[in-house]
Amino acid sequence: MNSMRLPKVTYHEPKNVTEVLQIKGEPNEESAVLAGGTDLIPMLKRRNTSVRHLLNIKKVPEFRSISGEKGGFYIGPAVTLREILDHPGIRQSYPLLIAAAESVGFNQLRNMATLVGNICLDSKCTFFNQSAFWWKTRPDCFKRGGKICYVVKGAKRCYALSAADTVSALIAVEAEVIIQKLKEERRIPLEVLYTGDSVKPHALEKEEVVTGVILPPPSKGWLGGFLKESFRGSVDFPIASLSVRLKMHDDKLEDIRIVLNAVSTAPVRARKAEASLKRRPINQGTINEALELILQEASPISLLGATASYRRAVIGAMFVELMNSEIGREV
Fold first, then answer.
1. Taking the model in full, what pTM does it have?
2. How many domains are there within the chain?
């Protein structure tokens, strides 16, 4: 029987960024970055992932920092959600992110979990996230290297969900991520990080590491809110999460961001719905029109204990609530 113990790995405690990138760049050696470990450690114990090397990055000073970045903020990959929630500058300037971070798990988990870890959360599936002992009784799914999906019968690919709580808020505020490997660095909008391929949900090469999140300079006049629906509050992964961020001008929408997560294989930026609302007043008619487009773009699927129809109902209720009642909040 599977004891749920950690597999044998070579443990590293690199002291600087170069050491991290050197180990990560070793050819033919699978490695994983450990910061909070709230998702990685259970995955290793269940044998949902397999690596030869485990890199604890908590002793890299740059990775533990929150600093100013051209009027915004740089957040290192070992910065915990608790540190973000307690940071006065982030709390004042990015209440949308604060609301999303507060929805993650419970206090003890937020004390350990990191923002970058949440961004890099593996896609989730009721079937895949079982133990190796459970999987001995059935053929492997796509995500385990097999040829079957237990979620969508007859499917030709994996349908595990993108489920991280903070992602919709970060995309709504137009956050970027810094990605590094030896002698190379790139900086991309966060939404570009997600591939929609549940087997490889992040656009990262084997030797690359997400070394930071960049929050852009805050600007005034934006309103909005964040909502998450789950069966047991923040303890569970969401049935759906939604961030709305908008700016009004003369009683009409000047600009808007509508971002969902936990409804598909990647976060969903509802661009058609955004376009339908621009330069129009907010009323029941425009809200209903936008909602139809959101549901078309999101195409919710049945997974994590919620059917597609229930997930659609949840998205609709959250969107209407945000547009009607919480849209007065400055974000």
1. 0.93
2. 2
Q: Residue 1 has what pLDDT?
A: 41
Q: Identify whether the C-beta of residue 46 lies closer than 8 Å to the C-beta of residue 130.
A: yes
Hey, is 55 helix, strand or coil? strand
The identity of residue 330, as a single letter, is E
305: CATH: 3.30.390.50
For residue 46 the two structure tokens come to 């269940």
H/E element, 132: helix 132-135
Q: Strand pairing of 53-56 and 10-12?
A: parallel
- For the chain, state the CA radius of gyration: 20
In a domain, 3, yes or no: no
Q: Please provide residue 225's backbone torsions phi and psi, each rounded to the nearest 5 degrees.
A: -170, 170
Judged by DSSP in three states, 16 sits in coil
73 bridge partner residues: 68, 215
The parent domain of residue 251 ranges over 222-326
**CATH (domain of 114):** 3.30.465.10
**Of 205, 312, 227, 225, residue with least CA distance to 264:** 312
Q: Taking residues 272-299, what's their average pLDDT? A: 94
Please, are residues 266 and 162 in contact by the beta-carbon 8 Å criterion? yes
Confidence label for 40 from pLDDT (cuts 50, 70 and 90): very high
Q: Is the pLDDT assigned to residue 328 strictly greater than 60? A: no
Q: Using CA atoms, how far apart are residues 150 and 5, in angstroms rounded to an integer?
A: 26
Query: Dihedrals φ, ψ of 75, to 5°?
Result: -120, 120
Residue keyed to tokens 């990647």 = 266
Cα–Cα distance, 86 to 93 (Å, whole number)? 13
- Nearest Cα to Cα of residue 35 among 82, 81, 77, 85: 77
